[in-house]
């Protein structure tokens, strides 16, 4: 079923729209520490404003556990929104408040308090969804970052609106468009880079990618488990002993399908992550007992960069090393740079990989940088995400 998009949603001016956003921004000492998610939501808000809508914005924030918790209040976001939009955006301290209607008589945009202050949100509770939707004739979801969660504001709530009264916002739409291009019929040669801490959190996307890519590059802590599976010493490196079979399966699958599987051939190792005294380059297979793998070595960086140079499609998830430490960020930066230089269609998905891309200042040079970490990884598996299905039905 085709996803209803914002431009084809028709509504009379003055319509009241419930707009679900991903305003799950980091809050530090009562201030918004990174406003990227809010900025990413603005095009949809502005487009609806231009068309004369009145809207209540709603979102979750942090790990609120079904009850009000000042640490996770969306209050600081309201001030920032007011500044960005250039008019006052009143903050409603209870997302189900009976005052929402009268506030919307006076204001074009209001912001509702954290949805997760109610237990019904995470439980996908119909009663909560009905109370949330009360008074709104349209529903728009632009929260791609939450699309993989079957929560009330993104599943039960759109279930209360028919297809003519709901739509995906602009951000949601562009995410789906970019990621679909990777998942369904990617242009070949397609290369995927998968790294990050653990293989256990990436088995489903790895499996899915395996059936589509021509080249699979493995790096990060996850590659250590592959080393161990091949019988090499890994010293004190991060490994998952219970994932050795998974690593072997990936290697077997690659052979069977004719996928070129790249594993690091050399490493940067250190005696510690914090304040290391010894850092050296070591070929794979001879990691000293007292050392741990922290990044790709120079040879691997070169091999990985060349493997990406001529790809028509590249998907990257997971850093190649402990990139948070400057000295251990070269492998990750090499991948980011190779993607930026690649003329093909390049997509970065995943919390830390996106952070690394921004740190490298290469965001603008990628075809798409996903705002949804978990959601983009789940999308890659080829499953329809619950919130997207709820818009299509
Ligand atoms: P993403 O958020 O992009 O999906 P992950 O959450 O899977 O990535 O993993 C990111 C983390 O992996 C980073 O914090 C990084 O420090 C860590 N990491 C990468 N390589 C190693 C390694 N060799 N040893 C330990 N941790 C690593
Ligand atoms: Mg992460």
Short description:
This protein is an alpha/beta fold.
Structural topology:
Blueprint: E1 16-20, E2 27-28, E3 31-32, H1 36-50, E4 54-58, H2 75-85, E5 91-92, H3 100-106, E6 109-112, H4 119-122, H5 126-133, E7 138-141, E8 166-168, H6 170-183, E9 190-194, H7 203-210, E10 215-218, H8 221-229, H9 244-257, E11 260-262, E12 266-270, E13 279-283, E14 292-296, H10 298-309, E15 313-317, H11 330-341, E16 345-348, H12 351-359, E17 368-369, H13 373-380, H14 386-392
Helix pairs in contact: 1-2, 7-9, 8-9, 10-11
Magnesium ion binds next to helix 12.
* Distinct bound molecules: adenosine-5'-diphosphate, magnesium ion
Total strands: 17
The N- to C-terminal Cα distance equals 8 Å
Shape: elongated
Report the uncertain regions: none
Number of helices: 14
- Nearest-angstrom radius of gyration? 23 Å
Average pLDDT level: 96
Q: How much beta, percentage-wise?
A: 15-25%
Describe this structure in words.
This protein has 393 residues and is of the alpha/beta class. The protein has 14 helices and 17 strands. It has helices spanning 36-50, 75-85, 100-106, 119-122, 126-133, 170-183, 203-210, 221-229, 244-257, 298-309, 330-341, 351-359, 373-380, 386-392, and strands at residues 16-20, 27-28, 31-32, 54-58, 91-92, 109-112, 138-141, 166-168, 190-194, 215-218, 260-262, 266-270, 279-283, 292-296, 313-317, 345-348, 368-369. A six-stranded parallel beta sheet has the order 5-6-4-1-7-8, sandwiched between helices. A six-stranded parallel beta sheet has the order 11-10-9-15-16-17, sandwiched between helices. The protein has a three-stranded antiparallel beta sheet with strand order 13-12-14. Strand 15 (313-317), helix 11 and strand 16 (345-348) form a beta-alpha-beta unit. Helix 8 (221-229) packs across helix 9 and helix 10 packs parallel to helix 11. The longest helix has 15 residues, at 36-50. The chain starts with 15 loop residues before the first strand and ends with a helix. Adenosine-5'-diphosphate is lined by residues 196-197, 201, 220-221, 238, 293-294, 317-319, 321-322, 324, 350-353, 373.
């Amino acid at each position: 079923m085709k996803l209803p998009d914002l431009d084809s949603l028709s509504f009379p001016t003055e319509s009241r729209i419930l707009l679900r956003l991903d305003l799950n921004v980091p809050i530090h000492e009562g201030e918004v520490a990174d406003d990227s998610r809010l900025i990413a939501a603005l095009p949809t808000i502005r487009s609806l404003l231009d068309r004369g809508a009145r809207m209540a914005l709603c979102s979750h924030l942090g790990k609120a556990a079904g009850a009000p918790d000042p640490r996770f209040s969306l209050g600081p976001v309201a001030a920032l929104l007011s500044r960005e939009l250039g008019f006052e955006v009143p903050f409603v301290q209870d997302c189900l408040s009976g005052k929402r209607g009268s506030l919307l008589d006076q204001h074009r945009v209001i912001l509702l308090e954290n949805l997760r202050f109610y237990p019904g949100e995470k439980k996908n509770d119909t009663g909560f969804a009905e109370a949330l939707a009360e008074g709104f004739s349209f529903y728009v979801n632009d929260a791609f970052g939450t699309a993989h969660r079957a929560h009330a504001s993104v599943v039960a709530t759109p279930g209360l609106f028919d297809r003519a009264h709901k739509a995906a916002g602009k951000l949601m739409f562009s995410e789906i468009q970019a990621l679909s291009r990777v998942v369904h019929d990617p242009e070949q040669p397609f290369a995927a880079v998968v790294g990050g801490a653990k293989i256990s959190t990436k088995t489903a996307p790895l499996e899915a990618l395996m059936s589509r890519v021509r080249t699979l590059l493995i790096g990060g802590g996850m590659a250590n488990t592959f080393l161990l599976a091949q019988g090499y010493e890994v010293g004190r490196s991060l490994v998952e002993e219970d994932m050795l079979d998974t690593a072997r399966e990936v290697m077997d699958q690659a052979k069977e399908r004719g996928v070129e599987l790249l594993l690091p051939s050399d490493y940067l190792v250190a005696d510690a992550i914090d304040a290391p005294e010894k850092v050296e380059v070591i070929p794979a297979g001879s990691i000293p007992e007292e050392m741990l793998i922290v990044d790709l070595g120079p040879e691997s960086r070169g091999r990985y960069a060349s493997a990406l140079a001529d790809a028509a499609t590249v998907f990257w998830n997971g850093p190649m090393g402990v990139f948070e430490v400057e000295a251990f960020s070269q492998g990750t930066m090499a991948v980011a740079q190779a993607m930026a230089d690649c003329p093909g269609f390049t997509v970065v998905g995943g919390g830390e990989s996106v952070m690394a891309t921004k740190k490298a200042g290469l965001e603008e040079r990628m075809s798409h940088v996903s705002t949804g970490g978990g959601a983009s990884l789940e999308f890659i598996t080829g499953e329809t995400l619950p919130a997207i299905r709820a818009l299509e039905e």
